[in-house]
Amino acid sequence: MLASSVSELKGVGEKLTQAFARVGIRTVGDLIDWLPRRHEDFSAATSIAQLEPGKVTILARCEKVETRQVRRGLRVTTATLTDGKDKVRAVWFNQPYRATQLSPDQDFLFSGTFEFTYNRYQLTNPAVEKPRAFAETEPTEFLAPIYRVIKDIKPQQLRKLIESVRPTMVMLPETLPESVIKTQGLLSRGDAYVEMHFPSSEEALARAKERLAFEELFELLMASQLNKCENSKLQGWEIPFEQPRVAEFVKNLPFPLTGAQRRAAWQIIQDFASSEPMNRLLQGDVGSGKTVVAGLAAYSCAQAGLQTAIMAPTEILASQHAETLHGLLAPFGVKVALLTGSVKGAARKTLLQELSNGEIDVIVGTHALIQKTVHYHKLGFVVIDEQHRFGVKQRQTLLEKSPYMPHLLAMTATPIPRSLQLTVFGELEVSVLDELPAGRRPIATKIWQPTSAETLYEKIDAELAAGRQAYIICSLIDENPENDVKSVEAEYRKLRSTVFRHRTVGLLHGKLSAAEKEAVMQQFADGEVDILVSTTVVEVGVNVPNATVILIENADRFGLSQLHQLRGRVGRSSYQSYCHLVTSDNKKPTQRLREIEKSNDGFYLAEADLKLRGPGEIYGRMQHGALNLRIATLADTKLIARAQAEAKRFIDSGEDLVQYKQLSSRVHNYQRLTTLN
Which of 260, 280, 461, 614 has the least C-beta neighbours within 10 A? Predict the structure, then answer.
């Protein structure tokens, strides 16, 4: 039955079959797996007279309803609702079917946000339910599942079809080992699906979510632990610790190492001494000194006659790393070279020859490091900077350029929350740089409304007059009259011709060619450009210590981690730096903006961002979204701990995963997605 086509269900013709297929629903099993995205609690309906701003539910009839086209791509449906005594306005955006749904002789439960907008109070995008849709009890005593809208399928049709396959849900095959279900006191898979679609109570719904969330986390944690076991069986390079040489290197650094840098370096050196390849994540906030730690490790590697490859996501970041590492390592006879797409002709041929015969000890570059023409003499250590910018295949290609598995250090300036360390990065050992070098000051961060532009420009100009530089960040490239988000092109033209016509203003965005981007960034780094008007392409890897002020337009449209990354473009010297967050409108600032205004701690903000938005790009390019966590949240550390303990117990028991076909398939898929080797 699960494998039967949805077209075999009563009432599903060709049109509905095609509509289902567009969202990936082809079988009855797929339909059952179309879980509600949330549940509305209609047990607390209130009268219209008692409405207060916030989340509300009312029992009312529709007195009048109309739909109109406001502009291309936007249709607004408005309705007047009444409970017999009072009236309230409701508004839906791009939901024209509400006009036919809301029969004037039928009571409905409306659940949504009651707010003051466009100079009046109204219900915005409320969910609509018939009171007796799921229960034979009193109309206000049930939880209603709310599904993602499927084009050309009415919510009522979807509900009816899901109701028709309810008997099949009870018989869903089990995916978790019986021992796990028993130990954890979990619902059966069939019961969990029934409660998700037809919740009998809040408690039963909570247990259903617990069961399905546990399953998702168990699969992910099994994958990371199996990867860790497999990594331990690989043959790597043993790099002995030469204490006198390392001590001499540290002594000659132009600055003292922080305690965190010393701890991280010692952890890496200890890993090097084993033939088991290192698999370590070095996470440190912007400006915490990750490059120096990598340089010390590369020095140890060179002393053992092995090469280091450091891969960065952009040419300018690779160039900055190469320059820094050359300054640190050249005095000790360690040769550092740079390989990017810009290195061509005879220079490239010579460099590749020196790399393959072992004359180059440390090679820094972009994706150029993994091209087929690049051969290493003895590659013993690989560093991936801003590791989430690279896909798994790119990392693997670099690691495969050595007869033995090189030691791997993945670096990120996006602090990884503890829960993600246990799950997505569970196969990695983690080193943390949680101290900033001496002399760095916290960045002064403040939220501003759009009407404060004149004041902000005066503040920026004062910094420029003192010899400093500034970033102005916008989120779009082309001007769009239907969008209030500031365009980088329009802002650039406006600023250089009006407010800052006496300054040198540069423009940077993703549509420029690589050469154009590198050129303007180099001009900014060299101090030839006073203000860089840019999109978020400067988010990672731009190091201009003289830049002390960043203004982020429409800051409420950005994620917390992204805002913190952008803020990290300043504050990279002993000068006091400033971050101005300009909102899109004059409304009360979002919780996200308030969090970043009050804290410079990237680790705290990463945890807050995870709770507000989910894992996002922390997981990595080409992998984002592949986690497929529909019920589990990576902020639920207690459930993660339970799933982790069960995954370890299962592996230690020696029980064969293969006997659990569906579980085995999902675990192996996660192994491919998350492994760094």
Answer: 614
Helices marked H in 466-590 = 488-497, 514-525, 560-567
Cα angle: 281, vertex 249, 354; to 5 degrees:
75
Q: Which fold has domain 1-37+147-171?
A: DNA polymerase; domain 1 (1.10.150)
Q: 274, 306 in Cβ contact below 8 A?
A: no
Least confident among 293-297, 369-373, 529-533: 369-373
Q: Calculate mean pLDDT across residues 150-165.
A: 90
For the ranges 57-66, 167-176, 607-616, the lowest mean pLDDT is seen at 607-616
Query: What is 38-145's CATH superfamily?
Result: Nucleic acid-binding proteins (2.40.50.140)
Domain 243-433 is found in CATH 3.40.50.300: yes
- Is residue 401 a contact partner of residue 374, using CB atoms and an 8 Å limit? yes
Each residue's pLDDT tens digit, 36-70:
988 877 777 888 998 988 888 898 999 999 999 88
Q: Does domain 444-599 fall into CATH 3.40.50.300?
A: yes
**pLDDT-derived band of residue 624, with 50, 70 and 90 as boundaries?**
very low
What pTM was estimated for this model as a whole? Answer: 0.68
Give the helix/strand (H/E) hosting 40.
Answer: strand 38-41
Question: Do 1-37+147-171 and 38-145 have matching folds?
Answer: no
Alpha-carbon span 18 to 21, nearest angstrom: 5
Burial bucket for residue 406 (CB in 10 Å: 0-12, 13-18, 19+): buried
Written as one string, the DSSP assignment of 297-335 is HHHHHHHTT-EEEEE-SSHHHHHHHHHHHHHHHGGGT--
Q: How high does pLDDT run on average in the chain?
A: 87
Domain extents for the chain? 1-37+147-171, 38-145, 243-433, 444-599
Residue 545: which of 296, 384, 323 has the closest Cα? 323
